[in-house]
Amino acid sequence: MRHFLTLRDYTKEEILEIIELGIKIKKEFKAKAQPPYLHTQTLSMIFEKSSTRTRVSFESGIFQLGGHGLFLSNKDIQLGRGEPVKDTARVISSMTDMIMIRTFEHSRLEEFASYSSVPVINGLTDTYHPVQLLADYMTIIENGLEKNLVAAYVGDGNNMTHSWMMLAAKLGFELRIATPKGYEVDAQVMKDTQEFCKISGGKVSYTNDPKEAVKGANVITTDTWASMGQEEEKEKRIKAFSGYMIDDEMMALGRDDAIFLHCLPAYRGQEVSEEVLEGKQSVIFEEAENRLHAQKGLMVWLDLHR
Ligand code: CP
Ligand code: NVA
Questions:
Q1: What atom of ligand 2 comes closest to residue 51's alpha carbon?
Q2: Residue 40: partners with Cβ closer than 8 Å, 6 or more residues away
Q3: Model's pTM, two decimal places?
């Protein structure tokens, strides 16, 4: 049985297999010919943070696969009142077929998974957001950009950045990261990424100059400057990230065929301008929809590997 906690635990072949399966299911679904791959299976979805995309894509996804999703907010379940993770994991996994969790510390997710008798999926932690990257890479493939891929991530060194790093290091493409000083990525994640790059031929580089990062890139991406749990730092961060907005001028430094990705929610006038977000290079809504299809691929893949 496999969990899906970070891309670190997956090989290049496995990551591509999951995404290809998602693309296949997407085609079947659009043709109204998708089999009920997970007939009568249940997915428990534990949310300790807010969500629009992750909740709707997993809940719709499991239903479209012939199963049922249970939305479990920490406001409603005993976990939120202090029931231990290890008890919650054993109880829920004895009653449902798969579990998705969105939480704070990555170690909380790992603890949950270590007590779960069914596959556990990371729906976002403070450190990683791997399901988002499945959808992002599916969008890159659909836009024909996976060959000679040069991705640029401009913004906060956060869960999205770490996930991009793991994807680049596993699949072997070039990723340039630009963050302001003091908002760098986790040093251990960078170290591990460099080790994986030696095997894959990937290249993950780092700069404090956003323009240097986006120059010649064909995928340009960013994320909120203040992640969930950092709301109180918002004003301080807006000042620290001055000059990091992806605007038309920044996009013009990328290749002509470059696409703009954003996991959403986006904050217009902060990490990205209205013009870029709504512009012709932006594929953010295809990317968001692909959460549904990529995660269906993931759930079916995890079911096949138990
Ligand atoms: N991108 C993403 O995970 O969005 P939500 O926070 O709305 O789930
Ligand atoms: N970095 C953001 C991603 C939201 C999908 C956060 O953790 O809030």
A1: 5
A2: 66, 67, 68
A3: 0.98
User: By the 8 A CB rule, do 122 and 4 touch?
Assistant: yes
The residues, any chain, with a CB within 8 Å of residue 230's CB and separated by 6 or more, are 237
Give the CATH fold of the 7-129+290-304 domain. Rossmann fold (3.40.50)
The number of the ligand 1 atom at minimal distance from the alpha carbon of 52 is 7
H or E element that contains 205:
strand 203-207
What would the pLDDT profile of 156-165 be if each residue is shown by its tens digit?
A: 999 999 999 9
Cα 198 to averaged position of ligand 1 atoms, centre (Å): 32
What distance lies between CA 254 and its chain's CA centroid? Answer: 23
The predicted-structure confidence for 69-104, as pLDDT tens digits, reads as follows 999 999 999 999 999 999 999 999 999 999 999 999
What CATH class has 144-282?
Answer: alpha beta
- Max CA distance (Å), the chain: 53
